[in-house]
Protein backbone atom coordinates (compact mmCIF):
# COMPACT_ATOMS: atom_id res chain seq x y z
CA UNK A 1 0.00 0.00 0.00
CA UNK A 2 1.39 3.46 -0.88
CA UNK A 3 2.11 5.79 2.01
CA UNK A 4 0.08 8.51 0.26
CA UNK A 5 -2.43 8.12 -2.54
CA UNK A 6 -4.21 10.95 -4.36
CA UNK A 7 -7.01 10.05 -6.79
CA UNK A 8 -8.96 12.36 -9.10
CA UNK A 9 -8.24 15.43 -6.96
CA UNK A 10 -10.27 18.47 -8.00
CA UNK A 11 -9.99 21.89 -6.38
CA UNK A 12 -12.19 24.84 -7.26
CA UNK A 13 -12.22 28.36 -5.81
CA UNK A 14 -15.59 30.10 -5.81
CA UNK A 15 -15.55 33.87 -6.25
CA UNK A 16 -18.38 36.35 -6.35
CA UNK A 17 -18.94 36.03 -10.08
CA UNK A 18 -16.91 33.06 -11.26
CA UNK A 19 -15.43 29.67 -10.35
CA UNK A 20 -11.74 28.97 -10.89
CA UNK A 21 -10.88 25.27 -11.24
CA UNK A 22 -7.26 25.19 -10.02
CA UNK A 23 -6.75 21.41 -10.03
CA UNK A 24 -8.50 19.15 -12.53
CA UNK A 25 -8.41 15.45 -11.75
CA UNK A 26 -4.88 14.96 -10.40
CA UNK A 27 -3.77 11.49 -9.30
CA UNK A 28 -0.42 10.26 -7.92
CA UNK A 29 1.06 8.01 -5.25
CA UNK A 30 4.03 8.30 -2.91
CA UNK A 31 5.82 5.25 -1.57
CA UNK A 32 7.58 5.17 1.80
CA UNK A 33 11.16 6.48 1.59
CA UNK A 34 10.72 7.85 -1.94
CA UNK A 35 10.83 11.39 -3.33
CA UNK A 36 8.30 12.79 -5.79
CA UNK A 37 8.90 16.12 -7.53
CA UNK A 38 5.85 18.02 -8.76
CA UNK A 39 7.13 20.43 -11.42
CA UNK A 40 5.40 23.28 -13.21
CA UNK A 41 5.14 27.02 -13.64
CA UNK A 42 3.57 29.38 -11.13
CA UNK A 43 -0.20 28.98 -11.34
CA UNK A 44 -0.10 25.38 -12.55
CA UNK A 45 -1.70 24.08 -9.33
CA UNK A 46 1.36 22.63 -7.56
CA UNK A 47 1.14 24.47 -4.23
CA UNK A 48 -2.65 24.18 -4.06
CA UNK A 49 -2.29 20.43 -4.51
CA UNK A 50 0.31 20.30 -1.73
CA UNK A 51 -1.87 22.30 0.68
CA UNK A 52 -4.83 20.01 0.04
CA UNK A 53 -2.90 17.00 1.40
CA UNK A 54 -3.63 18.16 4.97
CA UNK A 55 -6.67 20.32 4.13
CA UNK A 56 -4.92 23.66 4.62
CA UNK A 57 -7.12 25.30 1.99
CA UNK A 58 -10.10 27.56 2.84
CA UNK A 59 -13.33 25.85 3.83
CA UNK A 60 -16.39 25.69 1.56
CA UNK A 61 -18.00 27.57 -0.05
CA UNK A 62 -14.79 29.52 -0.80
CA UNK A 63 -12.94 26.38 -1.86
CA UNK A 64 -14.33 22.98 -2.74
CA UNK A 65 -12.15 19.87 -2.83
CA UNK A 66 -13.25 16.49 -4.18
CA UNK A 67 -11.64 13.18 -4.97
CA UNK A 68 -9.66 11.03 -2.55
CA UNK A 69 -6.54 11.70 -0.45
CA UNK A 70 -5.47 8.63 1.49
CA UNK A 71 -2.63 8.68 4.01
CA UNK A 72 -2.08 5.06 4.96
CA UNK A 73 -5.53 3.76 5.84
CA UNK A 74 -6.98 7.22 6.58
CA UNK A 75 -9.09 9.28 4.18
CA UNK A 76 -7.86 12.83 4.77
CA UNK A 77 -10.96 14.50 3.33
CA UNK A 78 -13.04 12.70 5.98
CA UNK A 79 -10.92 13.52 9.06
CA UNK A 80 -12.36 15.61 11.88
CA UNK A 81 -10.53 18.51 13.50
CA UNK A 82 -8.65 16.31 15.97
CA UNK A 83 -7.58 13.94 13.21
CA UNK A 84 -6.26 16.81 11.11
CA UNK A 85 -4.33 18.24 14.06
CA UNK A 86 -2.65 14.87 14.57
CA UNK A 87 -1.80 14.70 10.86
CA UNK A 88 -0.44 18.21 10.35
CA UNK A 89 3.15 18.63 11.41
CA UNK A 90 3.50 15.24 13.05
CA UNK A 91 2.80 12.95 10.06
CA UNK A 92 3.01 15.41 7.15
CA UNK A 93 5.14 18.54 7.60
CA UNK A 94 5.78 21.48 5.30
CA UNK A 95 8.65 23.74 4.34
CA UNK A 96 7.12 26.82 2.74
CA UNK A 97 8.82 29.20 0.33
CA UNK A 98 9.92 32.62 1.54
CA UNK A 99 10.96 31.72 5.13
CA UNK A 100 11.08 35.42 6.06
CA UNK A 101 7.30 35.50 5.57
CA UNK A 102 6.65 32.17 7.29
CA UNK A 103 8.60 32.84 10.50
CA UNK A 104 7.00 35.05 13.16
CA UNK A 105 9.26 38.10 13.61
CA UNK A 106 8.38 38.66 17.29
CA UNK A 107 9.35 35.20 18.57
CA UNK A 108 12.78 33.59 18.68
CA UNK A 109 13.40 30.73 16.29
CA UNK A 110 13.80 28.41 19.27
CA UNK A 111 10.36 29.32 20.61
CA UNK A 112 8.79 28.68 17.21
CA UNK A 113 10.32 25.22 16.90
CA UNK A 114 9.43 24.46 20.52
CA UNK A 115 5.78 25.30 19.85
CA UNK A 116 5.53 22.48 17.30
CA UNK A 117 7.20 20.02 19.69
CA UNK A 118 4.90 20.88 22.60
CA UNK A 119 1.83 20.57 20.38
CA UNK A 120 2.64 17.21 18.79
CA UNK A 121 5.05 15.56 21.26
CA UNK A 122 3.82 16.41 24.78
CA UNK A 123 5.82 13.47 26.14
CA UNK A 124 9.12 15.26 25.39
CA UNK A 125 10.45 16.68 28.66
CA UNK A 126 13.60 18.44 27.45
CA UNK A 127 12.02 20.61 24.76
CA UNK A 128 14.97 23.03 24.62
CA UNK A 129 17.36 20.13 24.09
CA UNK A 130 15.16 18.81 21.28
CA UNK A 131 15.17 22.28 19.64
CA UNK A 132 18.96 22.55 19.87
CA UNK A 133 19.28 19.05 18.40
CA UNK A 134 17.01 20.02 15.49
CA UNK A 135 19.07 23.15 14.77
CA UNK A 136 22.28 21.16 14.88
CA UNK A 137 20.78 18.53 12.57
CA UNK A 138 20.21 21.11 9.83
CA UNK A 139 23.76 22.42 10.04
CA UNK A 140 23.27 25.63 12.03
CA UNK A 141 26.52 26.50 13.81
CA UNK A 142 26.41 27.21 17.55
CA UNK A 143 22.76 26.06 17.92
CA UNK A 144 22.75 26.82 21.66
CA UNK A 145 23.17 30.52 20.83
CA UNK A 146 21.10 30.59 17.65
CA UNK A 147 18.22 29.11 19.63
CA UNK A 148 17.62 32.61 21.07
CA UNK A 149 17.95 34.49 17.76
CA UNK A 150 15.08 36.30 16.07
CA UNK A 151 14.40 35.66 12.36
CA UNK A 152 15.71 39.06 11.24
CA UNK A 153 19.09 38.23 12.79
CA UNK A 154 19.58 35.33 10.36
CA UNK A 155 20.38 35.22 6.65
CA UNK A 156 17.86 33.85 4.14
CA UNK A 157 19.70 30.54 3.98
CA UNK A 158 19.78 30.27 7.77
CA UNK A 159 16.07 31.09 7.97
CA UNK A 160 15.32 28.30 5.53
CA UNK A 161 17.37 25.91 7.67
CA UNK A 162 15.26 26.96 10.67
CA UNK A 163 12.11 26.16 8.67
CA UNK A 164 13.52 22.73 7.87
CA UNK A 165 14.39 22.19 11.55
CA UNK A 166 10.85 23.16 12.52
CA UNK A 167 9.38 20.74 9.98
CA UNK A 168 11.62 17.86 11.10
CA UNK A 169 11.39 18.46 14.85
CA UNK A 170 8.42 16.09 15.16
CA UNK A 171 9.99 13.53 12.82
CA UNK A 172 7.22 13.36 10.18
CA UNK A 173 6.88 10.53 7.71
CA UNK A 174 6.31 12.91 4.78
CA UNK A 175 8.03 16.24 4.18
CA UNK A 176 6.46 18.61 1.66
CA UNK A 177 9.05 21.12 0.45
CA UNK A 178 7.27 23.91 -1.45
CA UNK A 179 9.83 25.83 -3.53
CA UNK A 180 12.42 25.52 -0.71
CA UNK A 181 15.13 27.36 -2.67
CA UNK A 182 13.11 30.36 -3.88
CA UNK A 183 14.89 33.73 -3.42
CA UNK A 184 18.16 32.02 -2.42
CA UNK A 185 21.35 32.37 -4.43
CA UNK A 186 22.56 29.33 -6.35
CA UNK A 187 25.23 28.39 -3.79
CA UNK A 188 22.70 28.34 -0.95
CA UNK A 189 20.20 26.54 -3.18
CA UNK A 190 22.65 23.66 -3.57
CA UNK A 191 23.32 23.60 0.17
CA UNK A 192 19.59 23.36 0.93
CA UNK A 193 19.00 20.57 -1.62
CA UNK A 194 22.05 18.67 -0.33
CA UNK A 195 20.76 19.08 3.22
CA UNK A 196 17.32 17.75 2.28
CA UNK A 197 18.95 14.80 0.51
CA UNK A 198 21.04 13.94 3.59
CA UNK A 199 18.12 14.34 5.99
CA UNK A 200 15.89 12.19 3.81
CA UNK A 201 18.47 9.41 3.88
CA UNK A 202 19.13 9.63 7.62
CA UNK A 203 15.47 9.93 8.67
CA UNK A 204 14.06 7.51 6.09
CA UNK A 205 11.19 9.87 5.29
CA UNK A 206 9.33 10.48 2.05
CA UNK A 207 9.56 13.86 0.32
CA UNK A 208 7.31 15.79 -2.04
CA UNK A 209 9.30 18.54 -3.73
CA UNK A 210 7.27 21.35 -5.29
CA UNK A 211 9.30 23.32 -7.81
CA UNK A 212 9.26 25.13 -11.15
CA UNK A 213 12.93 24.29 -11.70
CA UNK A 214 13.84 21.03 -13.38
CA UNK A 215 17.48 21.85 -12.64
CA UNK A 216 17.17 20.86 -8.95
CA UNK A 217 15.16 17.69 -9.61
CA UNK A 218 17.85 15.51 -11.19
CA UNK A 219 19.75 13.52 -8.60
CA UNK A 220 17.20 14.31 -5.89
CA UNK A 221 13.77 13.00 -6.92
CA UNK A 222 12.98 9.38 -7.71
CA UNK A 223 9.90 10.29 -9.72
CA UNK A 224 8.54 13.45 -11.28
CA UNK A 225 5.02 14.64 -12.10
CA UNK A 226 4.69 17.58 -14.50
CA UNK A 227 1.70 19.86 -13.88
CA UNK A 228 0.26 22.10 -16.58
CA UNK A 229 -2.87 24.19 -16.07
CA UNK A 230 -4.16 22.09 -13.20
CA UNK A 231 -3.41 18.67 -14.64
CA UNK A 232 -0.56 16.19 -14.52
CA UNK A 233 0.46 15.88 -18.15
CA UNK A 234 3.45 13.57 -17.68
CA UNK A 235 4.90 11.49 -14.89
CA UNK A 236 7.44 8.74 -14.42
CA UNK A 237 10.97 8.00 -13.17
CA UNK A 238 12.98 11.21 -13.12
CA UNK A 239 15.78 10.07 -15.40
CA UNK A 240 13.34 8.72 -17.96
CA UNK A 241 11.31 11.93 -18.06
CA UNK A 242 14.46 14.06 -18.35
CA UNK A 243 15.97 11.96 -21.13
CA UNK A 244 12.82 11.20 -23.10
CA UNK A 245 10.15 13.83 -22.33
CA UNK A 246 6.94 13.03 -24.19
CA UNK A 247 4.76 16.07 -23.54
CA UNK A 248 5.54 19.39 -25.28
CA UNK A 249 5.25 21.29 -22.00
CA UNK A 250 7.79 19.00 -20.34
CA UNK A 251 10.17 19.58 -23.23
CA UNK A 252 9.65 23.34 -22.90
CA UNK A 253 10.43 23.26 -19.17
CA UNK A 254 13.58 21.21 -19.72
CA UNK A 255 14.60 23.58 -22.48
CA UNK A 256 14.63 26.44 -19.96
CA UNK A 257 17.42 24.85 -17.90
CA UNK A 258 20.68 26.83 -18.37
CA UNK A 259 23.57 24.70 -19.61
CA UNK A 260 27.27 25.28 -19.13
CA UNK A 261 29.06 26.01 -22.38
CA UNK A 262 25.84 26.90 -24.23
CA UNK A 263 25.67 30.61 -25.05
CA UNK A 264 22.23 32.14 -25.48
CA UNK A 265 21.41 35.66 -26.62
CA UNK A 266 18.25 35.65 -24.50
CA UNK A 267 16.62 33.57 -21.79
CA UNK A 268 14.55 30.63 -22.94
CA UNK A 269 10.79 31.17 -22.61
CA UNK A 270 7.80 28.87 -22.84
CA UNK A 271 5.60 29.36 -25.90
CA UNK A 272 2.16 28.33 -24.67
CA UNK A 273 0.58 28.87 -28.08
CA UNK A 274 3.05 26.44 -29.65
CA UNK A 275 2.38 23.93 -26.86
CA UNK A 276 -1.36 24.20 -27.46
CA UNK A 277 -0.88 23.62 -31.21
CA UNK A 278 1.32 20.57 -30.60
CA UNK A 279 -1.13 19.15 -28.07
CA UNK A 280 -4.02 19.65 -30.51
CA UNK A 281 -2.06 18.01 -33.32
CA UNK A 282 -1.26 15.01 -31.15
CA UNK A 283 -4.81 14.60 -29.79
Would you write up a description of this structure?
The structure is a single chain. 36% of the residues lie in helices and 24% in strands. With 283 residues, it is α/β, with parallel strands linked by helices. It has one domain (4-91, 172-282): P-loop containing nucleotide triphosphate hydrolases (Rossmann fold, 3-Layer(aba) Sandwich), CATH 3.40.50.300. The protein has a six-stranded mixed sheet with strand order 6-7-8-3-9-10, with helices on both faces. Strands 2-1-4-5 form a four-stranded antiparallel sheet, covered by helices on one side. α7 packs parallel to α8 (186-203). The protein is globular. The two termini are 34 Å apart. The mean pLDDT is 91.
What is the CA–CA distance across the termini?
34 Å
What shape does the CA trace take?
A: globular
Mean pLDDT: 91
| Total helical elements | 11
- Summing up helix and strand content along with how strands pair, one would put the structural category as alpha/beta
Let me know the largest β-sheet.
Answer: 6 strands, mixed
Features:
283 residues, alpha/beta, Rossmann fold, 4-stranded antiparallel sheet, 11 helices, 10 strands, 36% helix, globular
What order do the helices and strands come in, and which of them pair?
Blueprint: E1 4-14, E2 19-30, E3 35-39, H1 46-52, E4 63-71, E5 74-75, H2 81-87, E6 92-95, H3 99-102, H4 109-120, H5 127-137, H6 143-146, H7 156-168, E7 174-178, H8 186-203, E8 206-211, E9 223-228, E10 231-237, H9 238-243, H10 248-255, H11 272-282
Parallel strand pairs: 3-8, 3-9, 6-7, 7-8
Antiparallel strand pairs: 1-2, 1-4, 4-5, 9-10
Helix pairs in contact: 4-5, 4-7, 5-7, 7-8
